[in-house]
Every structure is written in C-alpha cells, then in structure tokens.
Amino acid sequence: MKKNRGKIEEVQMDSRELATPAGYSITAKEFVCATRLKGVVVIVPATGVKQSYYFKFADFIRNNGYVVFTFDYGGIGASRKGPLRDFHTSATAWAKNDLEAVIRYAGKKYPEAKQVLIGHSIGGQLIGLAPSSVLASRIVLIAAQNGYWKFWKGAGRLRMLLNWYFLFPVITKIFGYFPGKKLGVMEDLPKGMVREWRKWCVTPDYLFGYYEEESLFFHKVRGKLIVYSVEDDRFAPEEAVNWLSRKYAGTGMVRRHLIPADFGLEKIGHFGIFKSKNKSHFWNLLLGDMEN
Predict the structure, then answer these.
(1) Whole-model pTM?
(2) Could you give the C-alpha distances from 228 to 44, 141, 146, 158, in angstroms and in order?
(3) Which residue segments constitute the domains of the chain, with CATH numbers given?
(4) Name one Pfam family in it (predicted).
C-alpha cells in the first residue's frame, strides 16, 4: 500500500527473497504489469538508497506495460538481516551476486520479454560488472559516473578529498560499518563495500584499475544505451558521467544533460529524476527513451 496526497491506493507489488552466489539473500519487489507486457525493467539503486525510494517511479513504469523489479543490496534496507559489523560483502558482490541474482530471476520468470536495466549512480557502474547485463536490450544510466575525486572542482573536490581520505575510512574503522543514518547522509553501509568503493574513488581509472578487461562486461553490452546527467548534480559531474558512458559498448546511445531552468525548476540534483513531484518533467521522457 502507498499514500499519495492523502489517498490510499493499491499497488501490485510482491516481495521476493532471492539467494545470491555469495550465500546471503536479498529482498526484491516485483511490480506486476498493469497492461499488455512490453518488457521487464530492473532498477539498480544508488549507494545507500533503499529500493523504496524508487517505488513510485516503478509503479508508473508498470502502468505503462512493464514488469518492474526493485531490490536492496546486501546490508541495505530489507536486505539487512543482522548487525552490519558481522556482514561481509563488497561493491563487487553487490554487482556479481546481488544484481546478477535479480537479472537472472527476472530472465527466468519472463524468458521471452526484453529486459531494461536502469542504473542510478553506482547502480550504473555495477551493471557493467554483472555478467547477465549483456542480455539487456536497453541500459539506462541516471547520473552514473566515474567516482574519482578529481573529477570534482572547487569546494566539491575538497569535500570528496575529505570523504575518501578521512571521513569514510576513519568512521568505518571506528564503527565497523559506515553509519550513514546517524550522519543523516544515506543508509548504513557494510564495511567491505565502503573499503572497496573508497579504493575505487582514489584511483583515476576508478574500478577499471582493479580488473582485467575480459572480466568486465561494459564493452560486451549490445543493447541501446541511454545516458542522463544533471547540471546541478553535486555527486555526478557531467565529465565524470561522460567518462563512464564511454566504457559501454552498444548499438547506439541517447545522451541527455538536464538543466533545471529548461524545465522551469530551481533544482534537480542527483535524486530529482525519481521524485514524484517531477513526474511530469522526466518520467515520460525516460519512458520514451526506453521504448524508441
């Protein structure tokens, strides 16, 4: 059930516990298609963002002809099964285990349907680490970037420098996990994920500095690529988004850079595309890019 402007509406959403190759389970939600089935969409979340953030967007997509899957990474939201100090995972595991498990489940349940992967921020990075991503007919990257700190400028660069050389490593060591909720910045993060993510963010080639090319799947993707960046996004500079998008192969690319004033808005930011208040500005645009 969900609340919308004081009204209670029924949402066709089923919960799934999915096993992953890493040995832990994750919680996914399946939004049942409300019309004739056009395809299957998997929404791949940003770091420290619960799947519930994407529920209203997922409901919109399911009402336009798609089955939609959302999920929480291991240690996040409904996939947090116990104390994070005792939970072992990594950014790589989030891709090769968690995301891979969802893609495989969706493909097995709907084998004839075309699959679309929508990756928000780190979600767009992790798509290229998941083997089954090569089967997608469309890959949509929303503010997905190279997280190397020198892509930022001015005060943003200083903030990223402090994040990766002080805040994240020190606080994670003290608590045994990153207490994002206590700090009011995101969900809590498992220590193994933070350590790997931090390592990527101090490396110019980001995650690509730690893998042989043949073990990655960015260049093996054959579906159409749709890439969004946002002018006032303090977490994904346009240049960093361009850098990551060039790592993907595919049959073609649609590239959109959104400027708030063009939509009569004061701000969009890193999360604004998925906010229901911006539905009229972005959701049909995104749907059209998925289908054309």
Answers:
(1) 0.94
(2) 15, 6, 14, 25
(3) 2-148+215-291 (3.40.50.1820)
(4) Hydrolase_4
